[in-house]
Structure formats: structure tokens, C-alpha cells
Design brief:
The chain is of the alpha/beta class. The chain has eight helices and seven strands, in the order αββααααβαβαβββα. The protein is globular and about 45 Å long. The two termini are 22 Å apart. The relative contact order is 0.17.
């Protein structure tokens, strides 16, 4: 796992609310602006009892999410939309070089907002699940000294606002126009520890995601690549 920084694992281990540990790239600490890429959900992909057993075993382990992300992000020939489309948008090219992909994923932290597997792709996270996810994510932002967050999907915005209000945090999010792929980008900040963390919510990159359109939005609001 030479692409990972394991120095935070002792802190993760103390968090009973964290079912699986975030991916922290090996160059994250030294990156020019510490970035958390916040995915949404893990879905139960199993079709047979044996596959279900394997799925449950993976996500019962603290490294379950890391293993999944390694399999998809670091296998540069694997055309998984949620990683490849974001790389394309960040670097504004349809075919980023493998070295660019490696540099990106080793420079960021990656975590999933929803902290429990969902039964299928047809199931959407509830407000409760989103809010629990933001409660954990905000704590991780402090622990990892995050400066900016790229969020997959816009559905969790109300949950973030509720969680921020309950903590007495200043959280300001606004909608950008026009729509891109039938989705309004959201940008804003949340103030933690006296510092503003930049937030950008984009359409989930797994489907109907035009990287060319989103590249300009990402480039305008985050320091990446």
C-alpha cells in the first residue's frame, strides 16, 4: 500500500462511528491544498449468497472502502466512471496519463458519505443517513486538516445544513446557474476551527456526467491537479 498514508490510522481506530477508514493518499499531507473527495454510497453488488457473503466480509473490515478504491482508482485500465470521469474533469482531457491519475489519487483523501451499504442502485440514502455521514465527514475534516471538499452528488446539501446548524457552524451554500447535465452545481463554505473549508457539489460522476462541462466548474472553484 505504498500509495497510502497510514499515519492517521491510529486516530481512525479511536472512532467507533467510523465503519471503514478513509483512503488517504501518500502525498496528501504535502499537497498544496488538502482535499477530501467525498463519494456517496457503497451498493451491495452481490447476486448470489456467496457473493453476498464476500461483500459483507469486505465491508465488515476497516480497509473495505480502501480496497474497493484501490481496485478501481489505481487500476488505470479499469474504466470505472466515478474515478475516470473525475480525472478527466480535473485534468480537462479525455485521456489523462497514468502518471496524472496516480498523482491525483495519491494527493487527496477519499471517503464515502453514507456509512452503511445500500441494498441496490435503486435505493437512495435517507436524510438520516446523509446527516450521519456529514457528522462524520465534518469531524474528519478537522482530523485531516481538510481545506476543500469535492462532493459527489447534490442530494446531501440539506443534511449538511442541518448538521452545521446543530453545531452552530457557519455554512453557506449557493446554487450556480446554468444547469449542467440537469444538475445545478453548488458551491460554498463551512467554517471549522476558525477556517473556511471550500465546498463544491457536482453531479455524481458515475452516470450522465459530461466531464468537459464540469471541468470548468471544478477548475474555477477548487485547486486540484
Amino acid at each position: 500500500m505504498n500509495h497510502l498514508d497510514l499515519s492517521f490510522d491510529g486516530h481512525f481506530a479511536q472512532r467507533a462511528s467510523l465503519p471503514w477508514w478513509p483512503w488517504v493518499g501518500s502525498q496528501y499531507v504535502s499537497s498544496r491544498k488538502r482535499t477530501l473527495v467525498l463519494g456517496e454510497s457503497v451498493y451491495d453488488w452481490s447476486d448470489t449468497p456467496r457473493e453476498r457473503e464476500l461483500f459483507q466480509a469486505r465491508y465488515a473490515e476497516r480497509d473495505g472502502l480502501r480496497d474497493t478504491h484501490t481496485n478501481h482508482a489505481m487500476d488505470f485500465r479499469r474504466d470505472t466512471p466515478y474515478v475516470r470521469n473525475v480525472e478527466r474533469a480535473v485534468f480537462s482531457t479525455s485521456k489523462p496519463a497514468d502518471a496524472m491519475k496516480h498523482a491525483f489519487w495519491t494527493s487527496v483523501a477519499y471517503h464515502n458519505l453514507v456509512l452503511e451499504p445500500l441494498a441496490s442502485l435503486d435505493v437512495r440514502p435517507s436524510l438520516r443517513q446523509f446527516r450521519a455521514g456529514w457528522a462524520e465527514a465534518l469531524d474528519l475534516c478537522i482530523l485531516l486538516d481538510v481545506r476543500q471538499v469535492l462532493v459527489y452528488g447534490v442530494g446531501s446539501v440539506p443534511a449538511l445544513k442541518l448538521e452545521a446548524t446543530s453545531r452552530g457552524l457557519d455554512c453557506r451554500i449557493r446554487k450556480l446557474r446554468p444547469q449542467l447535465n440537469r444538475c445545478y452545481p453548488r458551491v460554498g463554505t463551512v467554517t471549522l476551527g476558525g477556517s473556511d473549508i471550500q465546498l463544491l457539489f457536482i453531479r455524481h460522476p458515475s452516470t450522465f456526467f459530461s466531464w468537459e462541462k464540469w471541468s470548468a466548474i471544478i477548475g474555477a472553484h477548487l485547486s486540484l491537479g
